[in-house]
Amino acid sequence: MAWENDHLATIIQEFLTSADKLEKIINKATLEIIGDIKMMLYDQDFSRWLRANKLALQTELRSNWGVTRADQACEFLLEDPRFKSWYDATESRQLVIFGDVGHGKSVAMAFLAEMLSHKNNHRLPSPVLYQYYCQDHETGKPTSVLSALTYLLLTKLKGLQKPFHERYKQQAQELGLEPSLDIITMEDMLQNMLEKIDRPVISVIDGLDECDRDSRQRLLKFLKQYRKNLRDLRLFYLVLNSGPKRDRIIVEKALEALDYLSPEILGLLKENLSQRAQGSAIWTKMTIKLIQLLSYSTKSSIESFLEELPLPGQLSDVYTSILLQITGGNQQNWQLAIAALNIVAASRRALSILILAWAVALGLAPGVNTLEALAKKVQHERVMRLIYPFIASPDYDQPRKHQLRLTHHSVKEWLSEQPNSKESGSKVIHQTNYAPKHIESFMLDICVKYLLLDEIVQIELFSEEQAALGELPQLRSAASDDDLPREYDPNCTWEYFEEDMARFDPVDRDLGELFVYASCHWTSKLDSTEFSSDLYDVTQI
């Protein structure tokens, strides 16, 4: 009996020990799950507060640059003594890359960022590296840049997330507005984060020349004032000059698109373009596109083409030659192409092929009053056929994907000089001023007219069934209770993130492709321009 009692006591003790271990395991797992949930909620809050959705396009841009880039043309930067001195320095310094328009500064910066990332893996302590591209006026605003830099730091250093989250909410209550919209607050919060980092920070900021003067001066003042906290802010300048070797490498890479030509012709192009490129990568790229467009394949035609080819300093002449060749000197084609390119240039978000086609159709047919009549005028294939050399990597298989952007910001400068119509021989027959203020007015007119089309006014946005489901949100996910939510990735596109979600598309309500853009952006156009629409039309919306 005593033996049985001792045995039972041993069993009980082992059970209690195992239960204690199990409790610790469960507590540990619970804490990890709670921590993961907190991190996920932090990520969602940071993404919303700091407008991280704008960074997805930058990731795509850098990916495209990596595909088309000739790495050998950038490797000389790694051997430059000024770059080596900058990287090996123990104190804060600034490295700035200068170069003429189209010389590949952005591509070179992306290359350096990749190489720095590899170098940092073998360095202790490992520096924190993040990069941002001011690709237009909107992303070049001080609040946009500071918000993006803050967000990128938070994704790299998880330990900063909780204190930032608490401070941001506190600031929001005190200010009564989003702190990310206040420059002084964001400068202070970013400085506070940088002071807490105990290792080097390399900040790659590209495209400051895309910012307006006031924004650029404000950003530079902030960066210089707090450069002691940033590993890469060093007072050093590196000019991206042209060189025969670099030009030859760029030309060789670009000529891969003409691999159907004979070796003799490719050799002729290689020698001629390398000698004339003067470091302009965009000139080389657009020249190759022009050769493709003209379908030159004989030696005599190539030689004649090269004799008349404008030099890189006359890049606008290259653009004009390309557009004249595409439009064939046809007035309507020229007008359509210029309107389409200006809409892409002035848009504050990437447009889809269909949205662009609908906007162009309405902009060039002001007398249209119905969606049905407008739909008959939409020619998205024609629009893309006329502008494709100026659009970066369009995916024609996804006409509703938000993807359209210009190949280079110099195209935007060239557009501001172009008339609305041309005849063969460059005779201008009708000129419309497409300066930034006027194109904003043009786009406002399009938005207002679209929202006042007969069907738009008459059709209910939500069907009766959708409205009923909106009142009963618990029923909307009843059919998919077993589905796990997609893990949030701040670098993914919205199309990917929303792929498996139930989505409401106004197109399904017969509201057309332009409804979402027009209804979301007409107010921003109203704030930034003098509109030519009738004031009564605006008040009707």
Report on this model:
With 541 residues, the chain is mainly alpha-helical. The chain has 3 domains: 50-239, Rossmann fold (3-Layer(aba) Sandwich), CATH 3.40.50; 244-309; 314-469 and 484-541, no CATH class. It contains 25 helices and 4 strands. It has helices at residues 2-49, 55-68, 76-79, 81-88, 105-120, 142-156, 161-175, 183-195, 213-225, 244-254, 263-276, 281-294, 299-308, 315-327, 331-346, 353-363, 371-377, 380-387, 409-415, 436-451, 454-458, 464-471, 494-497, 515-528, 535-540; strands spanning 95-98, 128-133, 201-206, 236-239. It has a two-stranded parallel sheet. Strands 2-3 form a two-stranded parallel sheet. Helix 6 packs parallel to helix 8. The longest helix is centred in the N-terminal third of the chain and has 48 residues, at 2-49. The model is unreliable at 231-239, 421-433 and 475-483 (pLDDT under 50). Residues 73-235 form the Nephrocystin 3-like N-terminal domain. Keywords: Repeat. This is Nephrocystin 3-like N-terminal domain-containing protein.
